[in-house]
TrEMBL record:
<protein>
    <submittedName>
        <fullName>N(4)-(Beta-N-acetylglucosaminyl)-L-asparaginase</fullName>
    </submittedName>
</protein>
<dbReference type="InterPro" id="IPR000246">
    <property type="entry name" value="Peptidase_T2"/>
</dbReference>
<dbReference type="Pfam" id="PF01112">
    <property type="entry name" value="Asparaginase_2"/>
</dbReference>
<dbReference type="InterPro" id="IPR029055">
    <property type="entry name" value="Ntn_hydrolases_N"/>
</dbReference>
Length: 290
């Protein structure tokens, strides 16, 4: 049977999935599609959890985390990157132009500038005003599904059946200065093994990192689980080990080599966008809690 290219993305990012999906249908490769797809959200000023317009940390710094993986198992990542609108593209440059996988902070910014990326102030007046409001009480309590949950993780399968993935975020709003989440950590916020499939996570990064969630899902698929079963088991790993699991969200999406997809989350309200066969859809994820 002919392979049907497709793109899936965390949350209802249909424009991002469509951008990638249309590229795939035109025969472009999964890596180019996944990069261009997530860039839609990096540029979306209304998305305060990714790229330009991202909410700052508690000291007012917008710091971005992103990673990308291709079908050969190569990976690139940037963490605590400031002033660059498209961290995913810097992550791709790290993968392609350096002997390393991950660059952080000042060094990542220096590398980006060397590669021709332009510095830009990413703190919008709106995000700054909200941060100043937050400073009045300094209450650190991410609201489930709404605040802090708009990170884009995306998986693409191209016409050759090859899979690539990317994940990009400004992390949790009002995080501590220096905090890095799961999104740029290979195996946590994202993992792709082109023999098996890929997975991406969103939600409370600390919980995802502690279970190495995306790697876990790919390994469970390797053992024969469907993407849906694998996502569910990864979420349950966190639920069973976290007495306070009701206080945060963790959500995963996954895709296998047969083009089957799945998703699971703790709290109802997570959905994933999908583009295939020229059609875009928003899919409500199964959840542990109603
Ligand atoms: C993080 N996982 O930095 C990210 C946050 C997130 O939608 O997914 N927001 O912990």
């Amino acid at each position: 049977t002919a392979i049907k290219p497709m793109a899936i993305a965390t949350w209802n990012f249909q424009k991002a999935a469509q951008t990638a999906g249309e590229m795939l249908e035109q025969g472009e490769n999964a890596l180019d599609a996944v990069e261009q797809g997530v860039m839609v959200e990096e540029s979306n000023l209304k998305n305060t959890t990714v790229g330009d317009g991202g909410a700052p940390d508690r000291d007012g710094n917008v710091t971005l985390d992103a990673c990308i993986m291709d079908a050969t198992g190569n990976a690139g990542s940037v963490v605590y990157l400031k002033e660059i609108e498209h961290p995913v593209s810097v992550a791709r440059k790290v993968m392609e132009e350096t002997p390393h996988v991950m660059l952080a902070g000042e060094g990542a910014l220096q590398f980006a500038i060397q590669q021709g990326f332009k510095r830009k102030n990413l703190l919008t007046p709106e995000s700054e005003a909200e941060w100043k409001e937050w400073l009045k009480n300094k209450e650190y309590k991410p609201i489930i599904n709404i605040e802090n949950h708009d990170t884009i993780g995306m998986l693409c399968m191209d016409k050759n059946g090859d899979i690539a993935g990317a994940c990009t975020t400004s992390g949790l709003s009002y995080k501590m200065n220096g905090r890095v989440g799961d999104s740029p950590i290979i195996g946590s916020g994202l993992f792709v093994d082109n023999e098996i499939g890929g997975a991406a996570g969103t939600g409370m990064g600390e919980a995802i990192m502690k279970s190495v969630g995306s790697f876990l899902i790919v390994e469970l698929m390797r053992q024969g689980k469907s993407p849906q079963e694998a996502c569910q088991e990864a979420v349950m790993r966190t639920v069973n080990k976290s007495p306070n699991y009701k206080d945060f969200q963790v959500a995963y999406i996954a895709m296998n080599k047969n083009g089957e997809v799945g998703s699971y989350c703790i709290h109802k309200g997570f959905s994933y966008a999908m583009f295939q066969d020229g059609k875009s859809s928003d899919n409500l994820s199964a959840s542990y809690l109603e």
